UniProtKB/TrEMBL annotation:
Domain of life of the source: Bacteria
Protein name listed in UniProt: Capsule assembly Wzi family protein
Species: Paramuribaculum intestinale
Length: 498
């Protein structure tokens, strides 16, 4: 288990405040090359292979929200053994294909950060787990822009501590937001896993993430949250491959001013239309408190990859969800999530910009083929191969032919998540179906389908305080990427050191 996201102690009693220590050991065994979808997804990129024995250890000291000035920090290490996966690799010297077997590292630093809070403002630096502002990271199939599917990127970030009241609204309206500058540290992963045959590989990229959400008074029976998320890739050097040969190397340096301009990308000219690659979502969530203290939420995330998507010319594309939460986490059913994902419109099949074809006589523009999470100049929207957005859109890591882009982002699917507790046993069940038709430019013929199921249970050991034992089983049936089944057993510890 990963160290929990550090937020605040809030009004926690002093006896429960302190440094929280966490450790885990987990063993998995599976039938395929990869772990099934719901065993690998939304766990911060810590497991993807079928067979694993992995250990983690960490400590986190959250900030204290009831103090004007406070600080926090966290560290988390992972390591162990994972089975290898074969990726296609082209050898230009022999003009032949071979198998490039890769496996996760034996040891890596998952989190290392420090943070400080002053009044309603907070800032942090390092690698830190962040959560979705809209969906439940445990029960959802994942946020469209910032999910729990990939490792945290090293960077600096600043923003509000939770929602803060907007002046002159008498507490009726709150605002939340943050700005993050990060540096991708996975250059070696892209070089090692790419086929180096067709496509491109970028190195030295930067990421800029920003969001802003408004929320009505949560003390009222109906609460509405509305906002926007944006993520951008800038800078770096891209090497383009054609039939195994290097066709072009493009250096896209960056200046200090670019980190400001990227906050609102604008036209730059005929050769470089918009600075960087930016994608985002329009977010809306409405939560009503119903009988017995249960809460019922409905939400959507409308994804956009360019101007056509921002103007909602991409039809019904986006994530649509319903969430039901019990007033107590000890209920037999404490949470239910049902989601529908549709990414099949993509503003139509054609993208035509006259500036891309200087000699053309066709001067009209067609802004389609949005090709979510892919870009012609930058790497796919992924970190160490795992998608940073919706986990049910198959990540580049699963492309064993070494083509490092999303091949199935034109997809639709249904996802269901349920959790609760029966006596001392906590459980969680995730199930889903998805069908991919290809991406914005290439069709899958025939379309690929996959059905996935995962069930897990955990129970505290009375004889050893703070220790839980867990079991998990998962299965995939289909071609996204392949049939797979696996089982896992884990021991986790969580406790305070005062």
């Amino acid at each position: 288990m990963a160290v929990a996201v550090s937020e605040c102690f809030g009004s926690t009693p002093a006896a429960l405040r302190g440094l929280r220590l966490e450790a885990s050991v987990e063993a998995t065994a599976g039938s395929g090359e990869f772990a099934p979808l719901y065993m690998a997804s939304n766990r911060r990129g810590t497991l993807s292979s079928a067979d694993n024995v992995v250990l983690s250890a960490g400590a986190v000291r959250p900030m204290e929200c009831d103090r004007r000035l406070s600080y926090g920090y966290g560290v988390e290490l992972w390591g162990g053994y994972s089975s290898a996966v074969g990726y296609g690799r082209y050898d230009v010297s022999t003009e032949s294909w071979g198998m490039n077997r890769r496996r996760p590292p034996a040891l890596w630093l998952q989190q290392l950060y420090g943070e400080v809070k002053w009044r309603s403002l907070t800032a942090s630096a390092g690698m830190k787990h962040e959560g979705s502002p809209i969906v439940d990271d445990r029960l959802s199939g994942g946020d469209m822009i910032r999910s729990a599917n990939a490792r945290p990127i090293p960077g600096v970030r600043a923003g509000f501590t939770g929602f803060q009241p907007v002046p002159l609204t008498s507490g009726w309206l709150g605002i939340s937001g943050e700005l993050e500058y990060g540096r991708f540290a996975d250059d070696g992963w892209w070089r090692d896993h790419s086929a180096l045959y067709n496509g491109h590989v970028a190195q030295g990229e930067w990421m800029v993430y920003r969001r802003m959400h408004l929320r009505t008074d949560p003390g009222r029976p109906l609460t509405v949250t509305l906002g926007v998320q944006c993520a951008s890739q800038i800078g770096g050097t891209t090497t383009y491959y054609r039939d195994g040969e290097i066709a072009k190397v493009e250096h896209r340096g960056h200046k200090v001013a670019d980190f400001i301009k990227i906050l609102a990308p604008v036209e730059k000219g005929a050769e470089d239309y918009v600075l960087g690659n930016t994608l985002g979502t329009w977010d809306l969530k409405a939560t009503a408190v119903v009988r017995g203290g249960w809460s019922l939420s409905g939400y959507f995330q409308w994804i956009w990859e360019d101007g056509s998507g921002m103007a909602k010319l991409n039809g019904w594309d986006g994530l649509w969800g319903i969430e039901l939460k019990a007033p107590s986490a000890a209920a037999i059913v404490s949470g239910v999530v049902v989601e529908y994902l549709d990414l099949t419109n993509q503003s139509g099949p054609i993208h035509w910009a006259p500036g891309d074809h200087p000699s053309t006589s066709i001067t009209s523009e067609a802004t389609g083929a949005d090709d979510y999470y892919n870009n012609a100049y930058y790497n796919a929207y992924a970190y160490y191969g795992m998608g940073m957005g919706r986990a049910t859109v198959m990540s580049p890591l699963y492309n064993t032919d070494g083509y490092m882009s999303y091949i199935g982002n034109r997809t639709r699917g249904i996802h269901v998540g349920v959790e609760g507790r029966i006596g001392r046993v906590g459980y969680r069940v995730l199930a889903g179906w998805r069908k991919a038709y290809g991406n914005g430019y290439e069709a899958m013929i025939p379309a690929r389908r996959s059905t996935s199921l995962m069930a897990e249970a955990s129970m505290p050991l009375r004889s050893v305080p703070g220790v839980r034992i867990g079991v998990q089983g998962a299965i995939d049936r289909g071609r996204l990427p392949a049939n797979a089944s696996a089982a896992a057993v884990s021991l986790t510890y969580s406790g305070l050191w005062r």
